[in-house]
Amino acid sequence: MTTEPSTDTTEYAPERPARLRWAEHAPEVYRAMLRLETAARKGLDPRLYELVKIRASQINHCAFCLDMHTKDALAAGESVERIVQLSAWEESKHFYTEKELAAIELTEAVTVLTDGFVPDEVYDHAAKHFEEAELAQLIAAITAINAWNRFGVSTRMAPGHYTPGQHG
Q1: Contact status, residue 141 vs residue 52, Cβ threshold 8 Å
Q2: pLDDT category, 137, cuts 50, 70, 90?
Q3: What pLDDT digit, counting tens, does each position of 87-131 carry?
Q4: DSSP string covering 116-146
Q5: Verdict on whether the full-model pTM lies above 0.85
């Protein structure tokens, strides 16, 4: 069987280089972030954890983290359909469990603190679905991804080069 050479001449925009390789210039901070990440994920379902990471990264427009956590979610067995629907979860609730919805809603509230607090209804809804220790871990995971997002967005880390498990 002979394969014809590709005739695809699509020309994509050039990749922008990162503004700063922050982990190289602040290695102690990077190592501390890795320790925080390792501690924050303990006891959380890997698929739920990745959904939270993806949702916060969507809100924060962190392309690097979206690339990483989408790939890690797929590697953890998450479906493409649920990942795709995550940005419109309020219109696609039937794709998620009540516990996942509570985590996604809490992720949004912690990520977007425009009113300066997490609404009681959102917190109480999450508290109904998570034991206190698991809720504390979930809040830690949400906080950690928001910190990673800020490093990624401010330094314009380039997406597309991550391999699942590369940093885990």
Answers
A1: yes
A2: very high
A3: 999 999 999 999 999 999 999 999 998 877 999 999 999 999 999
A4: SS--HHHHHHHHHHS-HHHHHHHHHHHHHHH
A5: yes
- 111: closest CA among 64, 156, 54? 54
Secondary structure class of 47 (helix, strand, coil)? helix
> What's the count of helices (H) and strands (E) in the chain, helices before strands?
8, 0
- Annotate 57-81 with b (16+ C-beta within 10 A) or e (fewer): bbebebbbbbbbbbbbbeebebeee
Distance CA 88, CA 110 (A): 18
Residues 92, 78: Cα–Cα separation, whole Å: 16
Q: Where are the alpha helices (DSSP H) in 17-97?
A: 22-25, 27-41, 46-60, 63-75, 80-85
Q: What is the DSSP letter of 93?
A: G
* Vertex 57 angle, CA 53 and 62, to 5°: 135
Distance of CA 115 to the CA centre of its chain: 22
Who's near 108: CB < 8 A, 6+ residues apart?
55, 59
Mean pLDDT of the chain: 93
Going by pLDDT thresholds of 50, 70 and 90, the confidence category of residue 166 is confident
